[in-house]
């Protein structure tokens, strides 16, 4: 695996893009609250925006609601109160097809990876492009290059069940990035890799951001966050504090 990384630049991550405050937010929450079933409110009074081409960390102690907030942005759960607007559209007014259309504009790295076990790594990563109707020949080089980037070039024809947790995580990251989505939501995307590899993956997220993607990385990892001068969305006691 090391060889595949030899040509990577190990310099500090490049500076983040400046965002234009006048652009329509990619995500906007207005007084949002959420509870699971009849349980207590997990998140309360959330009002914030995520701008186009912006980069932010989402952090807070275990159980603070980071995954829940990502699920709200992914529209896989609905708020119990307040308004969620994604790509300028208010989520409660959108039908199922509309939601699918909005989700296709996002890349998501789930904590549990969600790779398809009956497809090879290459096929998993290529799947979002196939769903877009593209032919294999048109994306083969892109998929191979990205798999090389994350150090999985030599593993691309294996099935996910034989991979380590860190390898699965990198494959899940490659799948989320391959379409250059407008919004990337990543839940602890470096939780299963060593610090050196975590830095390289962070660099990949920053490169994606430089190409125009808004990036949200949920993490506990202070060392990782300290590498980038990025906005921090900090959850605690159900509330959100923003450190610009
Ligand atoms: N499906 C669910 N049903 C009921 N409660 C849930 C559900 N999912 C999460 N919770 C509760 O909501 C709270 C927030 O969970 P969440 O997974 O969003 O936190 P987190 O900040 O992502 O935690 P971690 O850092 O440990 O992954 C927790 O108290 C959790 O027990």
Brief overview, please?
The protein has a single domain (2-20, 52-67, 96-243), classed as 3-Layer(aba) Sandwich (Rossmann fold), CATH 3.40.50.300.
Question: Describe it for me?
Answer:
The chain is an alpha/beta fold and 244 residues long. It has a single domain, classed as Rossmann fold (3-Layer(aba) Sandwich), CATH 3.40.50.300. It has helices at 2-5, 66-74, 96-103, 121-131, 136-149, 165-177, 195-210, 222-225, and strands at residues 27-35, 41-50, 55-59, 81-86, 89-90, 106-109, 183-187, 214-218, 231-236, 239-243. The chain has a six-stranded mixed β-sheet with strand order 6-7-8-3-9-10, with helices on both faces. Helix 7 (195-210) links the parallel strand 7 and strand 8 (214-218). The structure holds adenosine-5'-triphosphate. Adenosine-5'-triphosphate is lined by residues 36, 39, 42, 60, 62-68.
Could you outline the blueprint of secondary structure elements for this entry?
Blueprint: H1 2-5, E1 27-35, E2 41-50, E3 55-59, H2 66-74, E4 81-86, E5 89-90, H3 96-103, E6 106-109, H4 121-131, H5 136-149, H6 165-177, E7 183-187, H7 195-210, E8 214-218, H8 222-225, E9 231-236, E10 239-243
Parallel strand pairs: 3-8, 3-9, 6-7, 7-8
Antiparallel strand pairs: 1-2, 1-4, 4-5, 9-10
Helix pairs in contact: 4-5, 4-6
Bound molecules: adenosine-5'-triphosphate.
Residues 36, 39, 42, 60, 62-68 line the site of adenosine-5'-triphosphate.
